[in-house]
């Protein structure tokens, strides 16, 4: 707590506690506002409303800063890997050697899913979107752990965490194989998280997959950069669903559905589809910028803009650098990368984008790297979900451990009809 603020309503003064966070974020605590004054606050899109206190991720949208448990993402992308970063987010500290080995072994040892679950895939059309499959399968995982579903028992939750992290990766790869009409490739417990994923995606019974360390490193970097982002739409969904004491699998499945939206994680698929259309129809970049500025066009420059970043999304900077390095090293020429760079340059020199502080976000370049890995466009949001999973888990655990245990239930301002009588059918117009 850091003192008191004051609000005057109907000429009456109300004192409200003021909170200042470790990075100087200031908040007025309105917990008692309605009971004291009868007023609630209204904040469409929650742009000004803090839902909780959290110690997991810090973002400074003006300076373009993003840190997980205080560590800059640039350092983690360079020096860590996804499994270690997942441990950091979930348990709050970087693991020591023993902890890291134990965590890795847990993930490797629990990579397989129940044989019965593999049959679920056969019910889907090959055209089913993998996000639909992922959310359904993750929720269905709860059926296999009936004795570990109490969200308020840390032992039960800890039993689930490595299993969910590892199995969601396996489910993602299996959904791709099924969409191709190929047999699933079982995980190998002697492979690390990312190598296992790429092998399960691209190996076939007819030929082994040659693990490419450059692709493994690039995948680790992408997953690290997507691992958390404080109270974004899908993480807030996981917290809200979790606040009803729904189990971990159900809460994460809800987060997957929220992430699917094109305004959120679905944007990475939309970016590449936009770039492919520009390339196919040879639409001039300045025409794209014009459409993006025209409210009546119904077109938005996907991968641009952000609720919090009013400067470069630091993740976009790292991804763009890795994109250049990886494609150059592999000798890959992707015309979509050139179009993306041209679009970025055109938009960032245009007053419409500059005035609104619209910069490339995490989704603008990520798809180009996924394409270089051979990952199909409709799997891009699944990749985002795999990356975001440790962040969702960390917030869900933090909410149960440090929250006040109350179910999330926002208020509203009612603007509908005031009381009126029921009208019998023969009197209706
Ligand atoms: C993610 O919250 C997170 O942290 C999310 C995320 C995470 O890691 O979890 O970072 C991941 O979701 C990244 C965002 C991916 N989405 C997109 O790239 C879709 C395109 N972007 C936009 O739809 C939009 O920028 C949002 C949804 C990202 C942010 O929307 P806001 O904050 O509600 O902003 P807004 O819609 O009120 O826009 C403000 C102005 C408007 O113009 P005016 O009404 O002021 O004239 O900017 C314009 C908008 O029309 N605008 C755009 C634009 N984004 C905003 N105009 C053209 N193209 C765009 N992309």
What does this structure look like?
There is one protein chain. With about 425 residues, the chain is mainly alpha-helical. The protein is built from 18 helices and six strands. The strands form two sheets. The protein has a three-stranded antiparallel β-sheet. The N and C termini lie far apart (about 60 Å). The structure holds s-citryldethia Coenzyme A.
Structural features:
18 helices; 429 residues; mainly alpha; binds s-citryldethia Coenzyme A; three-stranded antiparallel β-sheet
Write the SSE topology:
Blueprint: E1 4-9, E2 12-20, E3 26-28, H1 33-37, E4 57-60, E5 65-68, E6 71-72, H2 73-79, H3 82-91, H4 97-109, H5 115-121, H6 130-140, H7 154-179, H8 193-202, H9 213-225, H10 233-242, H11 248-260, H12 267-280, H13 285-293, H14 314-330, H15 335-348, H16 351-355, H17 363-373, H18 380-402
Antiparallel strand pairs: 1-2, 2-3, 4-5, 5-6
Bound molecules: s-citryldethia Coenzyme A.
| Poorly predicted runs | none
Overall geometry: globular
Q: Report the span from N to C terminus.
A: 59 Å
Number of strands: 6
Please tell me how large the radius of gyration is: 23 Å
Arithmetic mean of pLDDT = 96
**Structure ligands:** s-citryldethia Coenzyme A
Number of H/I helices = 18
What structural class should be given to the helix and strand makeup? mainly alpha
Oligomer: single chain
Q: Summarize the biggest pleated sheet.
A: 3 strands, antiparallel
- Share of residues in strands: 5-15%
The H-and-E topology, N to C, reads as EEEHEEEHHHHHHHHHHHHHHHHH
Across the major sheet, the strand order is 1-2-3
Portion of residues within helices: 40-55%
């Amino acid at each position: 707590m850091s003192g008191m603020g004051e609000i005057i309503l109907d000429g009456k003064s109300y004192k409200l506690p003021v909170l200042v966070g470790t990075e100087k974020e200031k908040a007025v605590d309105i917990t008692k506002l309605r009971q004291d004054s009868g007023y609630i606050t209204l904040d469409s899109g929650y742009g000004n409303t803090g839902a909780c206190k959290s110690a997991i991720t810090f973002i400074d949208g003006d300076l373009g800063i993003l840190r997980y448990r205080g560590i800059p993402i640039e350092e983690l992308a360079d020096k860590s890997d996804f499994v270690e970063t997942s441990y950091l987010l979930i348990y709050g500290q970087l693991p020591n050697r023993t902890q890291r080995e134990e965590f890795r072994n847990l993930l490797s040892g629990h990579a397989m899913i129940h044989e019965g679950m593999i049959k679920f895939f056969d019910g889907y059309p090959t055209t089913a979107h993998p996000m639909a499959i992922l959310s359904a399968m993750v929720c269905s995982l709860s059926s296999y752990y009936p004795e570990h579903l109490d969200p308020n028992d840390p032992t039960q939750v800890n039993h689930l965490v490595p299993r969910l992290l590892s199995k969601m990766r396996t489910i993602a790869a299996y959904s791709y194989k099924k969409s191709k009409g190929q047999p699933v490739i079982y995980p190998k417990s002697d492979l690390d998280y990312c190598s296992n994923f790429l092998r399960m995606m691209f190996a076939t019974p007819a030929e082994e997959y040659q693990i490419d360390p450059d692709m493994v490193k690039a995948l680790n970097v992408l997953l690290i950069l997507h691992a958390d982002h404080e109270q974004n739409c899908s993480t807030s969904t996981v917290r809200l669903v979790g606040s009803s004491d729904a189990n971990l699998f159900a809460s994460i499945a809800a987060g997957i559905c929220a992430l699917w939206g094109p305004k959120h994680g679905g944007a990475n698929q939309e970016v590449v589809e936009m770039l492919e259309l520009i390339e196919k129809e040879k639409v001039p970049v300045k025409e794209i910028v014009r459409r993006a500025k025209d409210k009546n066009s119904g077109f938005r420059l996907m991968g641009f803009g952000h609720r919090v970043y009013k400067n470069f999304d630091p993740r976009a900077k790292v991804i763009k650098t890795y994109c250049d390095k990886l494609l150059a090293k592999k000798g890959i020429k992707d015309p979509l990368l050139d179009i993306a760079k041209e679009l970025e340059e055109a938009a960032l020199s245009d007053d419409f984008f500059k005035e609104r502080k619209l910069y490339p976000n995490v989704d603008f370049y990520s798809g180009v790297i996924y394409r270089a890995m051979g990952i199909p466009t409709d799997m891009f949001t699944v990749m985002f979900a795999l990356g975001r999973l440790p962040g969702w888990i960390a917030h869900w655990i933090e909410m149960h451990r440090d929250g006040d245990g109350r179910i999330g239930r926002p208020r509203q301002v009612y603007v509908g009809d005031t009381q009126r009588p029921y009208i019998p059918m023969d009197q209706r117009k």
